[in-house]
Amino acid sequence: MELAADPRLSVTTHPVVGGPTVGPSLNARLGGLSDYPFTRLAALLVDVTPRSNTTPLMLSIGEPQHEPPALLAQALAAAPLADWGKYPPTIGTAPFRAAVHGWLCRRYGLPASFVDVDKGILPATGTREALFQVALLATPQRKDGRQPAVLIPNPFYAVYEGAAALAGAEPVFMPATRETGFLPDLDALSPDLLARTALMYLCTPSNPQGAVADLAYLKKAITLARAYGFVLALDECYAEIWDKAPPPGGFEAALALENDGAGQGQAGQGTANLLVFNSLSKRSSAAGLRSGFIAGDPALIQAFTRLRSYALAGNALPALAAAAALWGDDAHVEENRRLYRQKIDAAEAALKGRYGFYRPAGGFFLWLEVGDGEAATRKLWGEAGVRVLPGAYFTRSEPDGSNAGRPFIRVALVHDTETVARACETIARVLG
Ligand SMILES: Cc1ncc(COP(=O)(O)O)c(C=O)c1O
């Protein structure tokens, strides 16, 4: 009663307690998204119970199971307690940027000046959030007078689609099938589409197919980004997990363009239009550290820093120190690769000649063509407790309802070699 007498509160009339309620309005773009792949998997398997004598094997999630390097725990333990009390800086720390820069130069043979150590690198709290936010950075209201397009490989990492749609762009899918070498055919993109493209995501090595883009391919993608004025977001988070040869990276391609000379019109462009995303989740089996980086075009990094000063949660200083230690060390990564190769050998022994098996050039997933991915997933879970993901959950259907991922399953080779061998033998036995 006293409140009603307050003139500040009687100016507007608010609904009274017990009166009609109105639900909060939400971002309608959310409704247009597919359910996340793991949500769809849970729904698919809700009524399937593995036989009682099976031990469930989770080959559905790409979470490395190797023990993270001791270096990680040592660096965390060495951090001053007071550092946990500090807010993480958006631009990270100088030692973090120097360690990433050192790794980029080592890994891709870059001259020190090619990626600006202070203005060309930002920490990411895992690449997932950064890959999401880049769509907010890159999408204008209109591009070429129309709704902007964000180009996404199909199949794709689900975050790209959510990011594009929530940024107000139209996600446009680029088929990446066996016929196109499991990478999008860049020559098939029409000038009309490219003109309204704000952002192109590419993933190399690709998830789920393990395909690697060669240098010529990456050069073409960068050249298109520059010709049509869009951001090229290269997701390279599997770049360190490779079978026979290290996958080339976006910076190597940008450097090659630079060295090709003025005749190509690319000299002096440096890292223009390019952002590279990488992470310690796969390289160092440290998904829980939530630590990655974004690197590239200093103008984009500057604008991204501005956006991220509003949006970033950030890595605590001890986590940045641990990340710096990990980027500075290659020995543990070599050991990781050795273990992944053993797993792929085991998978090859069990599955060669079936389901279109091939050794992935990079990453640790098998992309197996089993006829009907959903039916195979249910069968494997019910009969053997082996959990995989149907390919259709990575792949957007065409307007005619066809879905290039439907015949596939994705199998994550992240457990120890013996478990992987057993799981792959089980897949062959159950699916026949
Ligand atoms: C293709 C791809 N990109 C990015 C990520 C994100 O990884 P993180 O946020 O752990 O760096 C993943 C994780 O599985 C992925 O598969």
UniProtKB/TrEMBL annotation:
Cofactor annotation: pyridoxal 5'-phosphate
Region of interest: Disordered: 1-21
Name of this protein: Aspartate aminotransferase
Domain Aminotransferase class I/classII large: 57-427
Sequence ranges of Low complexity compositional bias: 11-21
Molecular function terms, GO-annotated: pyridoxal phosphate binding; transaminase activity
Organism the protein comes from: Nitrospirillum viridazoti CBAmc
Keywords noted in UniProt: Aminotransferase, Transferase
Xref: SUPFAM superfamilies: PLP-dependent transferases
Pfam families tied to this protein: Aminotran_1_2 (PF00155)
